[in-house]
């Protein structure tokens, strides 16, 4: 149907990927000088690593019973909430937040080479519905301006008003990340169709934003909220219904709900829990997420996702090597640190 056939990088996209690997690894070393702990380049500050359940709706209609969603099963999951900014700032700084979901006990070969037999399946989402740049070439240009310094970045953004607008729209403060909406922003296969993912809290309640200068208020509020009760999100997909209005290769364009509504496929239950132990924090730091950690029916699409396949793999290997730690894929909700 709408699934693009040519899913290979152009020479310009290939050059952008290689440039990103070298710029981002240099940036990581600069921000985390040796000897010391090497953090992720993006989303280095963890708000929480939580235990969750991913409860797939039973008896979905035929057209929604694709890949993972055919089973009607419940999967245990780890969820890592994060702030994007690197080097990390306080929770009171306007930022993009991450919700990275790692399902466990998912059977079937995965698409990421070398990890085909892992029983994990990742969904990576952020707290905005449009990416800053349209594709990976533009993203590499923006990162190149960023690493060259503030003046170059401002000049770049002034010359690219759409990117500037998306950046301003995306950077926000939140009262609690258990009450925020999250979006995959990039598209994925859904069998023979194309979708984006979204995660929406079931409750509309909004905790007021804490006064400024409370560095770790997002973790503290979550700690209090999860000591009191369970929290629930809906996991949803949005079908691409019109490739012109809902492009695969321009992530700066939001897919509007008026053009295609979100459809619920699963409930995410985050049970009441404690999550602040040092081993749990270290475990969250050690995990690696990748959009390519998925069943073939849900293969990532587009140039940004193709770049992420290589960049996440190489930079995760790099940070683990620097930290002298092995890359791990969890199989249970127990914390098994080597
Ligand atoms: C649709 C666009 C994107 C989204 C939604 C996204 C989201 C995220 C999130 C939520 C994380 C944190 C995962 C965790 O909790 O460990 C992450 C990590 C990361 N992202 Fe992205 N990202 C996007 C695009 C990119 C691009 C284009 C690059 C660079 C080419 C990039 C580079 C990274 C890196 C290096 C990490 C750390 C990986 C690791 O060391 O494990 N991201 N991203």
Structural class: alpha+beta
* Distance N to C terminus: 46 Å
Tell me the fraction of residues in β-strands, as a range: 15-25%
Q: How many helical stretches? A: 7
User: Which segments are poorly predicted (pLDDT under 50) over 5 or more consecutive residues?
Assistant: none
- Helix percent band: 25-40%
Largest beta-sheet details: 9 strands, antiparallel
- CATH level-two architecture: Beta Barrel
CATH superfamily: Catalase core domain
What ligand species are in this complex?
protoporphyrin IX containing FE
Please state the CA-atom Rg, rounded to the nearest Å: 19 Å
Structure description:
The structure is a single chain. The protein has 7 helices and 9 strands, in the order αββββαααβββαββαα. By secondary structure, it is of the alpha+beta class. It has a single domain, classed as Catalase HpII,  Chain A, domain 1. Strands 1, 2, 3, 4, 5, 6, 7, 8 and 9 form a 9-stranded antiparallel beta sheet that branches. Helix 1 packs parallel to helix 2 and helix 2 packs antiparallel against helix 3. The longest helix has 21 residues. The chain is globular and about 55 Å long. The mean pLDDT is 96. The structure holds protoporphyrin IX containing FE. Protoporphyrin IX containing FE binds next to helix 1, strand 2, strand 3, strand 4 and helix 7.
């Amino acid at each position: 149907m709408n699934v693009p056939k040519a899913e290979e990088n152009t020479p310009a996209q290939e050059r952008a990927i290689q440039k990103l690997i070298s710029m981002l690894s240099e940036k990581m070393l600069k921000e985390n000088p040796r000897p010391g702990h090497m953090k992720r380049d993006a989303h280095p500050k963890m708000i929480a690593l939580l235990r969750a359940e991913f409860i797939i709706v039973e008896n979905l209609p035929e057209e929604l019973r694709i890949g993972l969603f055919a089973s009607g099963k419940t999967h245990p999951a780890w969820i890592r909430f994060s702030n994007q900014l690197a080097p990390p700032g306080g929770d009171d700084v306007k930022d993009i937040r991450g919700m990275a979901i790692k399902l466990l006990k998912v059977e079937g070969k995965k698409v990421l080479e070398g990890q085909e037999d892992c029983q994990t399946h990742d969904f990576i989402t952020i707290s905005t519905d449009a990416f800053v740049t349209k594709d990976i070439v533009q993203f590499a240009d923006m990162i190149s301006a960023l690493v060259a310094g503030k003046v170059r970045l401002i000049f770049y953004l002034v010359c690219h008003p759409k990117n500037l607008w998306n950046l301003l729209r995306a950077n926000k403060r939140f009262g609690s990340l258990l009450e925020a909406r999250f979006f995959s922003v990039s598209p994925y296969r859904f069998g023979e169709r194309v979708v984006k993912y979204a995660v929406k809290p079931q409750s509309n309640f909004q905790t007021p934003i804490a006064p400024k200068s409370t560095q770790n208020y997002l973790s503290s509020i979550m700690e209090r909220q999860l000591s009191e009760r369970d929290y629930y999100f809906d996991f949803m997909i949005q079908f691409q219904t019109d490739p012109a209005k809902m492009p695969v290769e321009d992530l700066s364009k939001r897919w509007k709900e008026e053009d295609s509504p979100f459809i619920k496929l699963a409930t995410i239950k985050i049970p009441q829990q404690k999550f602040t132990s040092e081993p749990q924090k270290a475990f969250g730091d050690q995990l690696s997420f990748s959009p390519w950690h998925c069943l073939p029916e849900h293969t990532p699409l587009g140039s940004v996702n193709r770049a992420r396949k290589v960049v996440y793999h190489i930079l995760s290997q790099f940070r683990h090597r620097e930290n002298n730690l092995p890359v791990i894929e969890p199989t249970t909700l127990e914390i098994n640190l080597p």
